[in-house]
Write a structure and sequence with these properties.
alpha+beta; Aminopeptidase; seven-stranded mixed beta sheet; 5 helices
Length: about 160
C-alpha cells in the first residue's frame, strides 16, 4: 500500500460489513499496546454490521479504497470526527491524515466552533501531529460498547 494510489468515495450500504471488519481489525492490530486483551476482545460489544448500515445511511461516512478494496473509513457529524479506522497494514502511509482531513471538512459543515474527537490512547500522538490538542480523558461514548474503553478527548 506504499504506492499511495488511494481513492475516496461516499460509503454505500453494502460497505457495512467491510467497515465493521476494518474496525475490528484496526482495534486488534493497532490497539494491543494500549488496551488489555479483554478490552480488545469486548470492544465491539453488541455491534454488528447493521450498526454501520445505520451510520452509512446518514450519508456522512467516507471510505478509502486501494486496488478496489476498502482499507479505511472516516465518519463525522457537525463539530466532531466520530470514527476513523484503517486496516493495520494501511497505517503509516499518510492515509490516516487524508481521512482525517476529509472528516474535519465534513465536521466543519454547519459548524463554526472547535472540532472534537475521541481518540484511542494509541492514536493520541497521531492526532496531536495533525494539530489536535488533548483536553481530557474519558470513556468511549459512541455506539454500542462492551468493555469500558478509555479515550482521550481532543479538540482542533
Amino acid at each position: 500500500m506504499r504506492d499511495g494510489k488511494f481513492s475516496f468515495r461516499a460509503a454505500h450500504h453494502q460497505d457495512a460489513e467491510t467497515v465493521f471488519n476494518i474496525t475490528k481489525a484496526s482495534i486488534a492490530g493497532l490497539g494491543e499496546a494500549s488496551y488489555s486483551r479483554d478490552q480488545i476482545a469486548n470492544w465491539m460489544g453488541e455491534r454488528t454490521p447493521a450498526f454501520y448500515e445505520e451510520l452509512i445511511a446518514k450519508g456522512r461516512m467516507t471510505v478509502c479504497e486501494h486496488e478496489g478494496l476498502v482499507v479505511g473509513f472516516v465518519d463525522a457529524e457537525p463539530g466532531e470526527v466520530t470514527r476513523l479506522f484503517l486496516l493495520p497494514e494501511a497505517a503509516g502511509v499518510g492515509l490516516g491524515r487524508r481521512l482525517l482531513e476529509i472528516g474535519i471538512a465534513r465536521a466543519r459543515m454547519g459548524h463554526s466552533g472547535p472540532i472534537r474527537l475521541e481518540a484511542t490512547i494509541n492514536a493520541e500522538g497521531f492526532y496531536q501531529k495533525c494539530g489536535f490538542r488533548s483536553v481530557g480523558r474519558d470513556f468511549f461514548s459512541h455506539g454500542l460498547g462492551g468493555e469500558p474503553i478509555e479515550i482521550v478527548r481532543m479538540e482542533l
